Amino acid sequence: MAVAESSENSFIVVMRASHVYRGFFMSVPAEWARFHLPNKSHDIELRVNSNVWQAKYHYKGYGGELTSGWKNFVLENFLEEFDVCLFNLISGTNEAIILDVKIFRVVEEVIPPSQVMQETLRGTSKMTSRFVMDSSSEEDE
Questions:
Q1: pLDDT on residue 106
Q2: pTM for this structure?
Q3: How far is CA 44 from CA 12, 19, 38, 61, in A?
C-alpha cells in the first residue's frame, strides 16, 4: 500500500527495532537524501495529519539519519517494529525541511502501551485460571 502511494519525492522505511525500541534513530536512504536534502545537518519537521514533531537530520557525508526528536515521534505515534512509514517531502529548502508521514501499521488497532499493561495485569489471572480450568476439564474427559 505504501509503494502505491509513493512518488519520486518520497521514501519508505519498514520500522526496525533500532528505530522504535532501542537506539531511536532512523537512517534516511542515502540516494534519496543526496537528491532531496541539503548536504548538512539540520532540523526537520515531521507531520502526521495536523500533528507536528521536530527532529534532527544528522548528515554523515553519504546520507544521514533522524535522531533528536525521532524518539518522541515514535512514541507518540505508537510505532511498532514492521510498521511501514511513507515519508513525503513537502518542503526541502535550506530553511525548512518538512516531511509528511503516512503510517501503515502491521497491527491495525493501536493501543497505547499504558492501556495494554493495565488490561494485561487485569486479564492475566483470569486468562490463567480459565486455561487451567480448560486444561483440567480436558484431562477429566
A1: 84
A2: 0.73
A3: 17, 17, 11, 17
